[in-house]
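Saturday, quiet lab. Running sequence design on the structure tokens for the scaffold JK sent over.
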């Protein structure tokens, strides 16, 4: 089984019957039918079905030197051709969702590929089991597993001395037994929690408390594991009134570990602060995941630009200079992201193990730039739509006795009233609904705090050549 279909994905998730809570109730029965999950699970299902489309097999399925086939999202690139193939795969999936599903299967599959390509960092280190990552990677590629992940600690105390707090809710290892490590506490923000086969849990870089320095993967229905969901942002359930949120609202959840036993064969490492830090700073985690992220964000910007232009055309405002300037802001963001993505592939180099690593510098700049530009893109759409983004009758109004008059008064330039409202609903769902606000916040903090990310870029940047270049002008006679 190289890749699975959408129906196979749904059936597998429904069989798990994971411990998922929402609105104070545990979800009973198939999660794929629950109102808060069915839209995202259906969209995820469609992404799996793309793999089964004959015309796309060359993009979504990879065959290695041994003749073994598996999903391209798991591919560990060994050439520039492999990198380009991964980019094309990510972007084909992103175009199916408008880039709105940040946790589409290719994201976590890329993370696992990064872990697999970096197992050498764990070899010979205390309390480390690199062979378990290798085994998980082999199982995942064989069965086309889906994953969520969690690594952020709850926001109870973010001070520098928080680690000395006696009452910490952070998930930690509280015991080591013959069966495995015992984990108790909580982790924050597992997007798609409860709608994947497994969850990968790891510590963020910079961990101080050794009991919190761990990484492992367990099935989503593991005993003692509970997903506590935020409220749903799926809108009113109508594809006309809420065209995006009904399809792409990836649920976010708090993950609670109640004395969860993680079998030894599932543990990657534990009680090792150095490895917990090195596994992210010295591994291929950043370049691999950033390449996937930026590939998706390029498509999301294309989607935003398309919506913005449709709004401009629908009310015929393209002749105004401020409109052209605002549209150009989005164009500049798109072209910069595309250029930085391709530049990362131009700068790609093989490491000592033959893995093709994309240039990290351009990718860090691209994702940090998007943290600034995406909120502005949302604001631009609001400004372009103006009052039209507020007065949006629901679909039922158009099907009522006043529908004909309503269509006349709501019409745009060469577009009927119902069609214009449908378009503006699309725009409003992207940048004004709870779903849209979550999208903006999500992109604002994707891959970490933007200030820290800027600091990382500054500290890692090589200024030497530019300093020498500037100094040469001082030394000229």
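Result came back. Writing it out in full:
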């Amino acid at each position: 089984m190289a890749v699975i279909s959408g129906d196979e994905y749904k059936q597998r998730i429904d069989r798990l019957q994971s411990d998922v809570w929402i609105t104070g109730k545990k979800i009973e029965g198939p999660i794929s039918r629950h109102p808060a999950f069915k839209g995202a699970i259906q969209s995820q299902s469609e992404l799996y079905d793309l793999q089964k489309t004959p015309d796309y097999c060359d993009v979504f399925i990879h065959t290695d030197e041994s003749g073994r086939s598996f999903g391209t999202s798991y591919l560990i690139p060994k050439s520039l051709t492999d990198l380009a193939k991964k980019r094309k795969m990510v972007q084909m999936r992103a175009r199916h969702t408008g880039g709105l599903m940040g946790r589409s299967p290719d994201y976590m599959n890329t993370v696992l590929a990064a872990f697999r390509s970096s197992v050498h960092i764990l070899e010979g280190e205390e309390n480390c089991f690199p062979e378990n990552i290798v085994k998980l990677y082999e199982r995942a590629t064989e069965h086309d597993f889906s994953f969520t992940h969690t690594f952020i600690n709850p926001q109870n105390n973010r001070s520098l001395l928080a680690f000395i707090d006696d009452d910490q809710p952070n998930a930690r290892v509280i015991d080591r037994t013959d069966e495995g490590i015992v984990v108790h506490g909580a982790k924050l923000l597992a997007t798609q929690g409860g709608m994947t086969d497994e969850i990968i849990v790891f510590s963020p870089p910079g961990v101080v408390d050794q009991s919190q320095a761990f990484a492992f993967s367990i099935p989503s229905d593991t005993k003692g594991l509970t997903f506590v969901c935020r409220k749903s942002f799926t809108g009113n359930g109508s594809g006309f009134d809420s065209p995006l949120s009904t399809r792409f609202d990836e649920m976010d959840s708090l993950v609670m570990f109640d004395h969860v036993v993680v079998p030894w064969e599932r543990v990657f490492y534990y009680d090792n602060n150095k490895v917990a830090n090195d596994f992210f700073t010295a591994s291929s985690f950043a370049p691999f995941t950033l390449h996937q992220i930026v590939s998706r964000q390029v498509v999301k910007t294309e989607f935003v630009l398309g919506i913005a232009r449709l709004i401009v055309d629908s009310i015929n405002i393209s002749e105004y200079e401020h409109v052209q300037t605002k549209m150009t802001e989005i164009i500049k963001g798109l072209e910069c992201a595309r250029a930085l993505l391709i530049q990362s592939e131009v700068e790609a180099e093989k490491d000592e193990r033959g893995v093709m690593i994309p240039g990290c510098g351009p990718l860090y700049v691209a994702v940090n730039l998007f943290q600034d530009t995406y909120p502005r893109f949302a604001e631009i759409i609001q400004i372009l739509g103006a009052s039209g983004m507020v007065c949006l009758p629901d679909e039922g109004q158009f099907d009522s006795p006043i529908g004909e008059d309503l269509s006349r008064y709501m019409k745009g330039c060469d577009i009927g009233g119902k069609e214009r409202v449908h378009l503006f609903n699309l725009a409003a769902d992207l940048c004004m609904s709870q779903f849209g606000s979550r999208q903006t916040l999500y992109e604002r903090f994707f891959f970490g705090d933007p200030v820290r990310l800027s600091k990382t870029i500054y500290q890692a940047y090589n200024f030497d050549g530019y300093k020498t270049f500037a100094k040469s002008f001082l030394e000229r006679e």
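Notes for JK: The mean pLDDT is 95. The chain is about 50% helix and 15% strand. Ask whether to fix the surface positions before the next round.
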